[in-house]
């Protein structure tokens, strides 16, 4: 009865029960993630894949422009999720930010919208790459290579595996900041021991650099156009 308070409560016991409940809650979340995590990630990737294939069959760059014009930042985010997951088959990814600046930001006149476009591009691409990272982490390298929607050949993946083993974590943002290597370090990072949060931060950093260069190029093109140089 030493724990009994004057009001008849049992403070230490109650606190212990609360801690146990919180621990049980975290345990249940962890068990669910371990048992069904791959299924959830694969399901999300399957839906993204269906969208990517449908857009590949019926879409083109004009459709991307039309979707961005009609649905704005929501469409831009969804398209960048496909880009990050390496499922963007119907439009060149390097055209997305310049097109969005032209369609949504009045060619750069709306500076706030330009900043929002960059933020949405980084968020969407990072979400897509993180999905692929989790799929690689849980499904494994060989499992991915067997999938028809995974467009990276084994030889290319071997080469980028070598990059990751040689340069380590800095290779993730550096590769994401370059035109022809964007996303190629996602799977090597996923099958390593890198944590999800660390990968997402490095991925976002590289994407921010890449999309900022594209935005700067688009704004420069708008500035030069009145002089008849384009």
TrEMBL record:
The keyword Protease does not apply. Residues 1-24 are annotated as: Disordered. Residues 92-209 form the VTT domain. GO terms for cellular component: plasma membrane. It is a multi-pass membrane protein. The chain crosses the membrane at residues 36-59, 71-91, 111-135, 199-222. InterPro entries: DedA_domain, VTT_dom. Keywords: Cell membrane, Membrane, Transmembrane, Transmembrane helix. It holds the Pfam family VTT_dom. It is found in: Cell membrane. This is SNARE associated Golgi protein. The lineage of its organism: Archaea, Methanobacteriati, Methanobacteriota, Stenosarchaea group, Halobacteria.
């Amino acid at each position: 009865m030493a724990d009994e308070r004057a009001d008849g409560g049992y403070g230490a016991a109650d606190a212990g029960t609360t801690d146990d409940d919180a621990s049980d809650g975290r345990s249940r979340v962890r068990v669910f993630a371990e048992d069904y995590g791959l299924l959830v990630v694969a399901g999300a990737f399957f839906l993204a894949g269906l969208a990517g294939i449908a857009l590949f069959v019926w879409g083109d760059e004009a459709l991307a422009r039309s979707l961005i014009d009609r649905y704005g930042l929501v469409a831009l985010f969804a398209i960048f999720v496909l880009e990050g997951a390496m499922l963007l088959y119907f439009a060149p990814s390097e055209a997305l930010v310049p097109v969005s600046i032209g369609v949504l930001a009045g060619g750069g006149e709306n500076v706030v919208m330009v900043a929002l476009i960059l933020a949405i591009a980084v968020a969407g691409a990072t979400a897509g790459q993180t999905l692929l990272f989790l799929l690689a982490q849980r499904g494994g390298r060989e499992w991915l290579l067997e999938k028809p929607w995974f467009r990276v050949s084994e030889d290319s993946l071997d080469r980028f595996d070598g990059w990751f083993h040689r340069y380590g974590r800095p290779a993730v943002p550096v590769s994401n900041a370059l035109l022809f290597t964007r996303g190629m370090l996602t799977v090597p990072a996923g099958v390593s021991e890198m944590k999800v949060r660390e990968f997402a931060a490095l991925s976002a950093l590289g994407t921010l650099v890449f999309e900022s260069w594209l935005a700067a190029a688009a704004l420069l093109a708008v500035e030069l156009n009145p002089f008849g140089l384009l």
